[in-house]
Structures are given as C-alpha cells and as structure tokens.
UniProtKB/TrEMBL annotation:
CDD domains: GT4_AviGT4-like (cd03802). PANTHER family: SULFOQUINOVOSYL TRANSFERASE SQD2, TRANSFERASE. GO terms for molecular function: glycosyltransferase activity. The lineage of its organism: Bacteria, Pseudomonadati, Pseudomonadota, Alphaproteobacteria, Acetobacterales. InterPro entries: Glyco_trans_1, Glyco_trans_4-like_N, Glycosyltransferase_grp1. This is Glycosyltransferase. Keywords: Transferase. Residues 18-119 form the Glycosyltransferase subfamily 4-like N-terminal domain. Residues 169-311 form the Glycosyl transferase family domain.
C-alpha cells in the first residue's frame, strides 16, 4: 500500500527529546516499511526515517526559536497533504481533530489515531460534528468520554523488539519510577510506597516547565529521604540498565492514562509493573503475569513483595506477544485495508 504518515511538527520523528506520539509514529513508520509498504512521512525536516521524508519544517518546532507562529507550518502541512492526497491509498494522521474538516470531504481514505486524553469538555462538540470520521483509540478505556466518535479499532502501542532488552547480568534491587514528574503521575505515591516497604527507589524523570512549581513544593522535599535517588531524564540507551536493575516499575497514576508507554518499556526489559488501576492499566498489565494493577496504597505496598515471584522471562515473553512494533504495524495494515475497501465501496455506490 501507498501510505502517508502525518506527524506533529512539535518534535522530530523520532524525537530528540521527550515526545511520546512522535516515537510511536517512528516505530509504526519503520514497521510499515519493513513489511514492504511504500510510506511517506510528513514531519519536521530533522526527522530520520527509512521511509520517504516529506519535510514540512526545517526542524522540530519546539527546537526552532525562529518560528514564532507554529500554526503556520502546520496549516501548510495540511494543505500539502491535501494537494498530494491522490498519491496515496490511505492517509494516517496523528494530529488529533485538526484534519477532520478538510479531509473528511476528500475521497482518499483517512484515519486518525487519538494519542491523548479525551475527557476534555471542549472535545464534545467537535466529535458531535464529525461523527463519521474514522478514528483509532490506543486503549478501550480511552474511548469512554466520546461514545459518539467513529472508533474503527483499538490498536495498542508497540516497541521495536530489540530496542529495549533485559540485562540478565543485573540483580534487581530497587523500585523504579520513569517518565514525567507531574501531579497526575503521582511520583509522591511512588516514594511513599518505597518508604513503606523500606526499598530504595530510583527516579528517572523529567520536569516540564509547567510542573516546576509542583516539583519544588510537593516532590523535591521528598527527595531528601535516604531511600530516594533522583537521576533525572534518561535516554533509550540508559533504559535497559535502569529498568533491568529494578524489581518493579511503579506507575501509581491518578488520571485516565490513554496508554502508558513506560509500562511496556519495563516489560521489554523483563521488569514487572505495579500500577494503579486507572485508564488503560487493566488492558496493558496482565495481572499476575506482567505485574499487578492495584486500587489502593495498601495493595501497592503488598504488591512490592508479591512481584518478586513473577518470572522476568515471562514478563519479556508477554511483551513479545502483545507489544512489539511489528504487531502494531500489522494491526494497522489490516485496518488500512479495511478502510480502503470500505471507501472504495462507498464511492462506487455514490457513482451509481
């Protein structure tokens, strides 16, 4: 198939810094190329891909201070894709609802993966207006706030099989927290769980500008405890050692997590997950196999001991079964083919 992947321009694909959506777009694009498809990636000019790159800005907009109006390159990207739409069998957008108005009126099949939270009230009129536009959810739970949306599939994220692998030479000896320090991620809970179980905890996390006050007021005082070690943000190369050395990844979230990429990163390293049962957690964590989903601090504390009995090889095996980039790409191809066939049938009926 001739497939267009249309990425955000905020970060490069893959991102040079933090950027969950752009990472997934990269893994999917490379997976589609490996499966033999003809893929064009519309993204920032500093993106790296084995597909055909259609550069829509000189570099990632977040890293380019010369761009003062970031909507202008985005508007030009949408226009460029629209003018080239006949070159493709399917257009796959990763821009939330921005393409809906223009591309829902086009004959080329399209689909949009929704990567973020959908429980915002301002989204309701948008999805009321565009009930027929096909969208993909990244967990079934993510769909709940928008029952009127035209969800055509749930496709879980995947990682390249060899991107993160277990370090079998390491003996797990601490708890891990990975990702962002933000109110909804509840790093404070992770520290409390570690203290309650008298277990060291290593925190590899970034602090976004918007969360600096929260970090200074709520989290930084907790870092003084002797069991706590704050590492800061880490890259892909550092994650296997960091995660393999942990007895469990703590994900004590307090929000409707759409997916939670850090959980499958841990599983790729054979590290089980202890996560609070919000959002996608029950779908991603196979209870008693890859970790435990809990509903209280008491359950989380108890799970720290229980998780030690889970075979780490079984955690890795479940990752290979459920969360590889190849599986993700194959799921999308099956959906693309279904959408292309349905659109062709619609156009044929309209012509009669």
């Amino acid at each position: 198939m001739r497939i267009a992947q249309i990425a955000p321009l905020t970060e490069a694909v893959p991102p040079k810094l933090y950027g969950g959506t752009e990472r997934i777009v990269s893994y999917l694009t490379e997976g589609l190329v490996e499966l033999g498809h003809e893929v064009t990636l519309f993204a920032s000019g500093d993106s790296i891909t084995s597909a055909t790159l259609a550069p829509m800005s000189a570099k990632a907009l977040r890293l380019d201070p010369s761009v003062r109006d970031t909507n202008a390159p985005l508007a030009m990207m949408l226009e460029t894709v629209y003018r080239r739409r006949h070159e493709f069998d399917l257009l796959h957008f990763h821009l939330d609802y921005l393409p809906f108005s223009l591309f829902s009126r086009a004959s080329t099949p399209m689909v949009t993966t929704l990567h973020g939270r959908l429980d915002l009230p301002e989204l309701q009129p948008v999805f009321d207006a565009f009930r027929d536009v096909p969208v993909v959810s990244i967990s079934n739970d993510q769909r709940k706030p928008l029952p009127q949306a035209n969800f055509v599939g749930t496709i879980y994220h995947g990682l390249p099989e060899k991107l993160l692998t277990p370090r079998t030479d390491m003996t797990p000896g601490y708890l891990a927290f990975l990702g962002r320090i933000a109110p909804e991620k509840r790093c404070d809970r992770a520290i409390e769980i570690a203290i309650a179980t008298n277990t060291p905890i290593k925190i590899a996390a970034k602090v976004d500008r918007v969360d600096v006050d929260y970090y200074e007021q709520k989290i930084r005082p907790l870092m003084a405890h002797p069991l706590v070690e704050f590492i800061g943000e880490i890259n892909e190369q550092q994650k296997p050692e960091f995660l393999s050395g942990a007895s469990a990844l703590l994900t004590p979230i307090d929000w409707p997590e759409p997916f939670g990429l850090v959980m499958i990163e841990a599983m790729a390293c054979g590290t089980p997950v202890i996560a609070f049962r919000h959002g996608s957690v029950p779908e991603v964590v196979d209870d008693g196999i890859t970790g435990f989903s809990v509903t209280s601090m008491e359950e989380a504390v108890a799970a720290v001991e229980r998780v030690k009995a889970l075979p780490r090889a079984a955690v890795r095996a479940q990752f290979e079964k459920r969360f590889t980039a190849r599986r993700m790409a194959e799921d999308y191809v099956a959906l693309y083919q279904e959408l292309a066939h349905s659109r062709a049938a619609e156009l044929m009926m309209a012509a009669e």
